[in-house]
């Protein structure tokens, strides 16, 4: 993805509207406004009870309450084409990964918009600008395959201006999907009794701004007031086949400041995040342990119907499952290797090529702090 809320694909550019979006989601989801704080909260909840076990004997009956946990799955950049070039049966298109995606909370980065608007950010004759839109009805497709929360902190959320952004938010709300990432917006979802706040960032003025560390810290602090667990997503870093390493420096793409993913992820955990996940570079990146918390620096592209290149490492992807305690402590993780067809369709990869690639990157970039994927897919610490 390129340009300030700009294009993405084999060639990219951007020219967004400079107006901020004042967004209130439709009443299908629970909404709350914090006076003076500029916070919009999108909420999806479930009602599974906290599990317990009971042991009975002739002498004694005891009940032990199992501490609650939260389990989520997360994927990277996801889009279902660009109207009119969209899959005729989008649910079937995503069917190969539907079972592997399943979790109480399912997160993805929504590239582009869900709108019928026709005026895009791109000039009519432009060959280097990309604006993505799919029908608003596709929101129900995302929900049908399991997504409960989608991110809009990226450079395609305003591809069709404010109209497209508003249409997208309304469509997600109507489908029962929480949204995060627009200015001041926090998405809150639940796994049983545990509430999880997603705070999503990208290096753009019309999203939660990844380049403004003090503002990000304040938003994470607000999220901690709303939920038991805070997950931070960042859309950050350079792009392409040569962008698979975490440089620990400010990264740029076509002259645009894409932030310092390493510094931002560490700051997010210092500010209270229990987990940091990311996408944007279009390739997988390594995973790191920091203060006992997992950072996944890029989950790559997940689905991109006929739009993006799938050459080289660009066809490697992942479904990341993570279980945390109700205080954000890591319990377990699982890495499912995914591969994309030439048409951008994801399927579970039995060769585990993505896991092998990420392990290599993690060791090279983080050394003793690398998060390692075991042969069974579990995420572990590097043996010392």
Description:
This protein is α/β, with parallel strands linked by helices and about 375 residues long. It has helices at about 90-95, 100, 140-145, 160-175, 215-225, 260-270, 355-365, and strands at about 30-35, 40-45, 50-55, 60-65, 70-80, 105-110, 115, 135, 150, 180, 185-190, 195-200, 230-235, 250-255, 255, 275-280, 285-290, 295, 300-305, 315-325, 330-340, 345-350, 370-375, 380. It has one domain: 4-Layer Sandwich (Purple Acid Phosphatase, chain A, domain 2). Helix content is about 20%, strand content about 30%.
Largest sheet: 8 strands, mixed
Query: What percent of residues adopt helix (DSSP H or I)?
Result: 10-25%
CATH level 1 name:
Alpha Beta
CATH topology: Purple Acid Phosphatase, chain A, domain 2
The general outline is globular
